[in-house]
Amino acid sequence: MSLCSGIRADGGRCRAQAMRNSEWCINHHPERAEARRRRASKGGKRAGRGRPIAELGSLREENAVIRRRLLEGDLLPSVAAVAVQSINTDIRAVGVTLRAREQEELTERLEVLEEALEQRKGERRHGA
């Protein structure tokens, strides 16, 4: 197989293998520009998948403050219980959000794979 004819952002030639019966790799092929744009636009929005570790860390800190205030007598047990229940709800929400984002990512990856498979099937039918 030949190398891609695409030019990288730094001005150098792309070193990836060209797709079968094409002069470009998947990242430089003009017909895939829209799919690349969609994938790239999601990249910056995910920001580490929403930074769930940071969110969970902040919820743990909040829980520790509640526990400390409860033990020091600054909070009534009933108030502390409601606050901890609210934190637990936030933790579940972070988990659900993370799973939903992962599912979106997997769906997108599956669509790209299905598109590539369809293209290969088309190439075989046309004698390529």
Protein architecture, described:
The protein has helices at 33-50, 52-71, 77-125. With 128 residues, the protein is mostly helical. It has a domain at 51-125. The longest helix has 49 residues, at 77-125. The two termini are 14 Å apart. The mean pLDDT is 83.
What's a concise summary of this model?
With 128 residues, this protein is mainly α.
Secondary-structure topology with pairs:
Blueprint: H1 33-50, H2 52-71, H3 77-125
Descriptive terms for the model:
128 residues, mainly alpha, 0% strand
Using only CA atoms, what is the Rg?
25 Å
> DSSP helix count?
3
> How can the largest sheet be summarized?
none
Low-confidence stretches: none
The geometry reads as elongated
The structural class is mainly alpha
Portion of residues in beta strands equals: under 5%
